[in-house]
């Protein structure tokens, strides 16, 4: 397994969890008792996520050592996502709402995780009330809402913190600016978004990929 593959494999949860929270965080019930102000902020964040139909944005993914790679994110509700990394990474992550697939073109390797059998199942399975894992955290800025998402019954899933910035032109008046993921090994990954484009045309082809494996080995 290449070093690049190891780095990106550890980032799959970080990259996908927050973005695929869009269809799941729909019925806000905080993980811990919330004040009226915190409940209002959580409701606003959920409303902003619900308001997104399609989204394209540029992203920069940075690991705990400060190594970064860029790419483009494409999202369509419910639950479909594509992380198209820069060409030098030779990596692609695609989610179809049922499974998450990571393709490493450097070694012609494909990994696929059924959503229900992965930590992402807590976020992607529409039958589960995922919003109960969301807790508003102080941001120190009235124009920023910070929502921490964790499943306290499964600490091995890690923690995702979603950062929203108030922006009048964004759906629901809030824009998902970045998220920070901390896995069970304290590996930190940050995904920063920019150049958000909402309501852009998206097709099924955006969530397909070319399988690099030889046909007789698939």
Description of the molecule:
Helices cover 17% and strands 38% of the residues. It has 218 residues and is α+β, with helices and mostly antiparallel strands. It has a single domain (3-210), classed as Lipoprotein localisation LolA/LolB/LppX (outer membrane lipoprotein receptor (LolB), chain A). Strand 8 and strand 9 form a beta hairpin. The chain starts with a helix and ends in a 20-residue tail after the last strand.
Keywords:
eleven-stranded antiparallel sheet; single chain; 17% helix; alpha+beta; outer membrane lipoprotein receptor (LolB), chain A; 38% strand; 218 residues
Q: What form results from the Cα inertia axes?
A: globular
Number of helices: 3
- Spatial order of the strands in the main sheet? 6-5-4-3-2-1-11-10-9-8-7
Task: Characterize the biggest β-sheet.
Answer: 11 strands, antiparallel
SSE arrangement, N to C: HHEEEEEEHEEEEE
Mean pLDDT: 76
Report the strand count: 11
Give the termini separation: 18 Å
Q: What share of the residues does DSSP label as strand, in percent?
A: 35-45%
Helix content: 10-25%
CATH-derived architecture:
Clam
The oligomeric state of the chains shown is: single chain
CATH topology: outer membrane lipoprotein receptor (LolB), chain A
**CATH level-four homologous superfamily name:** Lipoprotein localisation LolA/LolB/LppX
Radius of gyration: 17 Å
